[in-house]
# Entry
Amino acid sequence: MSVNTRANVEASSRIPTLDSIQIDAEFRDLCPALSFEESAQLRDNILSDGEFREPLIVWKSQGILVDGHNRFHVWRNLTDEQRQRIAAPRIKQLEFSDRDAVHDWIINNQIGRRNVAPSQRAYLVGKLYNSQKKDNTCFLNRGKSSAQSPSAQNDQTGETAQNLAGKIGMSPAQIRRDARYAAAVDTLSKNLGPEVKNELLTAKKVSKDRAVEIAALPADQQKAEYERAMGRGEPSPGITFDPSEWGGYETVDDPVTPHGVVTEYHIKEMQAPFNEVQKQATALKKAIQELPNGSGGAWCGPNAMNDIMTCYTNLINTINHRKPVVVCGHCNGKKCDKCHQTGALNKDLSQLFIEGQDATQGTTGSVRQAV
# Structure
């Protein structure tokens, strides 16, 4: 055995320390990072339990972290006093043949977790399918025949999606849709910035189909369309303007007939100030998240930050539920006491109307949605 070979064997058999673990950006970014609130909750749970329940998974021969990035981040940001109170995270080593094997292992592991959001799961399933499809295509590129490469046959006949569907309990058609979504997320993240990926997978503002549509646009048009879909930027020009994207209808000189009766058109106008407040609230949330969260004092402590975010959440919920969304079904927009003489119902009142829970109403009726 050569000196270099012996050194490599000894290095791969050595148990890594926490300080020696390496972070690979591609592996880390396969899943969105935790929000400030989620990260704070994870840290509090670990301190309360006195231990890290799950070990860190490390690629044995490379010393690269494969699973446990959020837990590792918590450990590295604990104070010395906090580290004295809990046991350090355990390390479990696994060996992989190459980076693609690590890539697929991470995705399969994440898909199996119960707390993965639907959009994140769709992205991971799509990434796994695209990865396996790429592997199958490589056989064809190397000139392998169908008889020599069963996986190439699968790629040609559609059995790649079928086999994957059987493993994770989804239809082949859904897997292909998720594959298009994953490709769209990666395209937009590459063209518009890495923060777009986290927004798409966590904000729940842009549907999967809409993300695919935006990613299919020329690169120089994607940013403006993405900003509109997120409720930011300038409204779409001409007849493509969708009031639900931005700020409601503009006020016109000629009132909508019949005069004095609130219609769906008026609802859009009434929503405009609420939408403006929501835009400002989004900027406020970003500012809150950028506040110091170290150990500098009570103001910077996690409990204080959690209290602030709880108040912020209550504010947003109040705005959303008080915003007028439908024409009043009690008076058909003519204004009555049940709609507080506005001719419109907010989410709470419209739900009561739909469910027939208004004691003074006695009957139910349909509500015309304005959003």
